[in-house]
């Protein structure tokens, strides 16, 4: 398997985890954030589906999602839910950053750059909700 395919599979894994996690986030997020959570959840579902199509177009059968994903910390009210969202978006940004680095195909690199940007913007939105300063980092997705 090429590095591009491996990194695409890792990005798909991050998107699967994001879709799962946004279900948990939705259950505990502040009620006035339900529209935002629904929008971000839909974005991850669309990115997940597009990534499956990318892998299949390369002749790779994507790995199935795990049955469940364990959050990095317990989620039982809106603040931990928002922190989980930051974590999810950080993980997605890191995964898509790796695709940008490993892409050999220009269209895959463009898709990955868009996905990285989207995750960074969503992360910044959650950071702002949490009152973090600064809300973003200079190079989203980098360790």
UniProtKB/TrEMBL annotation:
Pfam families recorded: DUF4439 (PF14530)
Protein name per Swiss-Prot or TrEMBL: Uncharacterized protein DUF4439
Domain DUF4439: 8-142
InterPro entries: DUF4439, Ferritin-like, Ferritin-like_SF
CDD domains: Ferritin_like (cd00657)
